[in-house]
Amino acid sequence: MPSSESSSHGSDDYVFIKPKATTHPRKTTRAGGYPPRRVSHGEDEGGMKTEEGIKARLEEIVADVRKKKLRDEMAYFVIDFNIKGDHPSSTKLLERLQSKLLAFLNEKKSKALVTSRIETLDQITKSRKEFPKSLANIVFDMHPMRIEEQIDKDILLEEKWTTEFRDVDIYVVPNIDIEKIKNYINQLETFLRKSETEIHGLLVDRFSRSGMLSVKINFPTTSELIKSSSFVYRVHETPRIVAQNLSSKASDQANLPKRGSLELAEDSNSKHNANLLPEICVLDTGVNYVSQLKPLISQRSFEPCISDANDDDDHGTSVAYLAAFGEERSARARIISHKVHSSTVSSNLFRALANAITRYLPKTRIYTCSINYLIDNDASRFETLKIDQLIQASNTCVLFSTGNILPEALDLFNSRNIVYPRYLDHSPIQHPSDAISVVAVGSYCKNSNSLSIAQRDAPSPFTRYSTPNSLLCSCIKPEVVEHGGNLTNNFTCQGVGIKTLSASGSLVERVGTSLSTPIVAGHIAEIEKKYGENIQNSETLKALAYSSCKSTQNHPKFVGFGKPDCEDMIASPFQTAKVVFEGTIRLVIPRVKEWSPAHEITVYVPAKVDKIELYLVHSDNYHTSSFLGLYTYFEVIPEKPARVSAPLPDQGDLRSKQHAKRLVWFYQKAVRGYWTFKLVPHHIGIPGGLRENVLLRYGGVIKMTTTRERSFSLTNEIERHLKRVQ
Hints:
CATH architecture of the largest domain: 3-Layer(aba) Sandwich
Number of domains: 4
Number of strands: 33
Helix content: 10-25%
Distance between the termini: 16 Å
Largest sheet: 8 strands, mixed
Structural class: alpha+beta
Shape: globular
Number of helices: 18
Oligomer: single chain
Radius of gyration: 27 Å
CATH class of the largest domain: Alpha Beta
C-alpha cells in the first residue's frame, strides 16, 4: 500500500475495496404478467391444441430413442413453440413435462432443445391426468432431433460430401452433467473407430460442459452415426483458421538495425530473474528456440493433430517475442507455446484453447492468440460461442487479434473510392475476437512517413472495427489497440512497421494485429505480476487494462477504449488514483419479485478532482442460447453528496447494454465527499425459470484525476478516508 510520504515524482499502488451487498427496488409487470407473443411459422399456424396431440408426439419421441443403438435413460428432443421460449408459459410447459431446457436453437427463442427421462415421458403418455389445453396451445411441434437440425446446412447441401471425406466437428448435447458427456463421447469414439473413421482429436471440457470430436468423415457415415445415436447435437465442417502475415519476407530485413540490439535483451536478464516473471500462453504456429527467446520459453506443446512444436510458418516466434519483451526490449513474461496451426495442418480452435486452458491454467490465466477464423459462417459463429463460454467458465483472460484487412481488400476499397479511414466502417472484426469474454485487440501506428496510408497515432490502415452481430447490442469491439505498424501506399511496411524476431532469430520489421495483440497480453501480465494475489476475477484484469488506455490523436472512433499507457498500467501517478473492486452477483433474488440484488461501491472523492471515470467489465454464466450475444448488463446508479438526484455522466450511459463500459464525470467544484455507485444487474430475454441460476462476475475501476497542485498524492488521501468507512 502507498506510503504517507509519497513524493510528487513517485507513484502509488492501486486501492482495493470490497463491494457491499444490498438490494434495489424492481420494476414489476402488471398483475397476470404479459400476454404471450405469437411466433410465425409461415403458412401453417397450427399447433398441438389437444392433449392427444402432445401425447402422440411424446410417444413418437420415446419410440425413436428406443430404436437407437447409442443411448441411455435420457431423451433429447426439440420443442417448437408458438410463442417465445422465454415466456412464463413455456417454463410451465417444461415443468409439466418434467423437462430441462438445454439450448435455444434459434434467435427468436421459439425452438428449444430439451431433455427428460424416457421413463418420465412414458408415464405422461399413459397417465389419465389431463394435459392443460392452454399449454398444448403454445406448442407448434415436438419431435426428435432431425438430421437437418443437427448437420450444418453449409455442408449438408454439398453433393461432394456424399463421396469425399471432410474435416468435421461432431458435438454432443450441451449443458448436461460432465460424466454423461464423457460417456457419450466414448460411445461415439467406439462407433467411429469401428467404422474406421480417422479421429483427429476429442474434447470433454468441464468448464463449458461441452463434448466434441474432430474427425475426417463422409456423409454416409455421418448419417449412420446420427441414426444410431440419441445425443448428437451438431455436426459442421471444421472452420478454417488463418495466421495472417501482411509483410513480405523480401522486405523483412531492409534498413533495420543489427540483430545485436535484440540479443541484449537476453543478456540483461538472468535465468533466476526470468523464473520470477509471469507466464503467458501463446496459441499460434509454434515457437522456435532462438537464442534471444530461449531463456524465456517455459514450455512447448502442440495439438494432437500436429507433429511438432516448431514455428515452420514464421509467425508464432514473432508473436511470442513481443509477448515476452514488448517494445521495450526488457523481459516481462515467460512464454508457454501451444501450437495450434501450421500451413499444412490446422486444429479446431475451440478444442485447442480448451486443451491449453486445461493444461496450463494452474500456471497462467493469460492466453493470447493471433489466429482467426477465415470466413464468417454458421460453423465459425458457433465455435466463437463455445470459445466465449469456455473463457467465461474458466475465468481466464484470453486475447484474440481482430484480424487484418488484406491488401486485396484495400485495393478493392480504393477502386470504389472508399478511402482510409472510411473503409474501417465496412471491415468488421473476425471471429472469434467478437466473443464477449475475449479481449479483441486492434492496431494503431506509432510511425508514419510521406508514403504511409495512415498518420502517426492513428488506427492502422489494416485494423478491423466493430461487429455486425446485433445480439451484441452496444458492446465495444475492439476493446483496445496497440502498436501494430503502418502501411505505405504500395502495401509495404519499411520504416513504419514494428520490430520483432523471425523464426530464425533475425530482427525483422512487420505489421499486423497479430503483433499488437501479444503486446497487450504482456501489459496484462505485468498487472498480474504486481496485483494478481489481490485479483480473483479475470474481468478485473481487463478493467485495469482498459482504465489505462488513451484514445489515439487521430480517428479515435475505431480504437475502442484506446491504446494502453504503460506509465498508468501498474501504478497511479501523483495526481491520479485508482480504486479497484470486483465481485459476483445473482441476476435475481430467488422467489423475490419486488427487489433486485445490487452491489454498492463507496469511494471518497477528494476536493479539486477534475474527472471521475468508472470502468466496469462483466460476464455471466448463461449458456443456454446457441447464438453469441449479450444477455445481461449492469445499470449503474451513482449517488453524490448533497444531491437528491443521481448525477448523469458527461460521457457514457448508466444503462448501456455493454459487457465493458466507461462512464465519465467532469467537475469544477462541489465534488468532495463519499460517492456511492450501485450496480444493478439486468437481463435480455433470459427465461424466468433460468434466471435464478444466472451469476454475473465483474471487475471494475474507479479512476480519479486532478490537474491541480497537491501537497500529497491523490491515492493517499483516498486511502486514509476509506479506512474510516471500512
